[in-house]
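hiii so um. not sure if this is the right channel but i have a protein structure encoded as tokens and i wanna go backwards to a sequence. like what aa goes where. can anyone help
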């Protein structure tokens, strides 16, 4: 199921937003942006998660951030029905590099870090496939396609409807 880039990007950003919200973050904004520059993708998105006051060195916080970062590629994989490792898709390089960098805080050993990140992808895939989670992602993606950007209040209303948080 190949769709236009804008729809794929909407599902990607919605994945970040829903998982970040479920893990306790406040989603301040999410948006789709068109670019005319040659060095940027034709379409790209952005999701801002506010974790509140946390210890950035806390393992639990680092794990939440990694899951939120990788949720975009996983949601996109599920939507497009194309399973691939995030390191193999050039459009996911920013997400993968950030997840790797965050993973270094937890696992300096590359093999342990790779095992953790692979496990995180599996957990995300299983969670995102669940009806309520996928419904929330689809709802946010639809709102993004209609409005191109959503603020914290718009996101909270939609996310609270579809989640138990």
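sure thing!! here u go:
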């Amino acid at each position: 199921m190949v769709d236009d880039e804008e729809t794929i990007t909407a599902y990607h950003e919605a994945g970040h937003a829903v998982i970040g919200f479920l893990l306790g973050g406040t989603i301040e904004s999410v948006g789709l942006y068109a670019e005319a520059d040659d060095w940027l993708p034709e379409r790209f998105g952005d999701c801002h998660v506010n974790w509140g006051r946390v210890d950035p060195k806390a393992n639990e916080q680092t794990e939440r951030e990694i899951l939120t970062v990788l949720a975009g590629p996983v949601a996109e994989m599920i939507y497009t029905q194309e399973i691939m490792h995030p390191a193999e898709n050039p459009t996911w390089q920013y997400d993968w590099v950030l997840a790797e960098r965050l993973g270094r805080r937890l696992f300096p050993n590359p093999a342990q870090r790779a095992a953790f990140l692979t496990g995180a992808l599996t957990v995300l895939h299983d969670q995102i496939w669940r009806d309520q989670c996928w419904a929330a992602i689809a709802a946010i993606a639809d709102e993004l396609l209609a409005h191109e950007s959503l603020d914290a209040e718009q996101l909270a209303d939609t996310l609270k409807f579809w989640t138990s948080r």
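oh and The first strand starts at residue 26 and ends at 34.
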